[in-house]
Write a structure and sequence with these properties.
Number of domains: 1
Protein name: DUF2147 domain-containing protein
Organism: Tenacibaculum todarodis
Strand order of the largest sheet: 1-2-3-4-5-6-7-8
CATH architecture: Beta Barrel
CATH topology: Lipocalin
Largest sheet: 8 strands, antiparallel, barrel
Structural class: mainly beta
Keywords: Signal
InterPro entries: DUF2147
Strand content: over 45%
Distance between the termini: 31 Å
């Protein structure tokens, strides 16, 4: 009995901790239709946060390339593209890195923060955070 209770406790704690992290798979939704247009995986490498597009839900856009991107990303496939780079943990948010918008090819400073266990706030900006745009990603179930 104690063995089963301990296993249940460990499982519950593991699930709770994992649900309270920015890491994992997130759905990006179209702002007008609220339909999922892509799935983004946020992961940690060397203590920093990164993200890449792992799924594009609209079959007509699965092979899209980043026409507007600069440098080595120009004309590269959007599927598999790293769009979030080098954010550092600063308490309850991750910041100090950049986010790429593959629709317009522009890079922005950004920070991300968990609003709740299933909602991630992404704020991209130029210069100061007050001059930017906020998007939300929703945890993929």
């Amino acid at each position: 009995m104690k063995k089963h209770l301990l296993t249940l406790l460990v499982f519950t704690l593991t699930f709770s901790v994992n649900a309270q992290t920015i890491f994992g798979k997130w759905e990006n939704r179209d702002e007008e239709t609220n339909k999922v247009d892509s799935v983004i995986e946020v992961y940690e490498k060397n203590g920093k946060a990164y993200a890449k597009i792992i799924e594009i839900t609209d079959i007509t856009h699965k092979n899209d390339i980043c026409i507007e991107c600069k440098g080595k990303l120009k004309n590269e496939p959007i599927l598999g593209m790293h769009i979030l780079n080098g954010l550092k943990n600063k308490g309850d948010e991750w910041s100090g890195g950049k986010i790429l918008d593959p629709k317009n090819g522009k890079e922005y400073k950004c920070y991300i923060k968990l609003e709740n266990k299933n909602k991630l706030k992404i704020r991209g900006y130029i210069g100061f955070a007050a001059f930017g745009r906020t998007a939300y990603w929703y945890r993929k179930k």
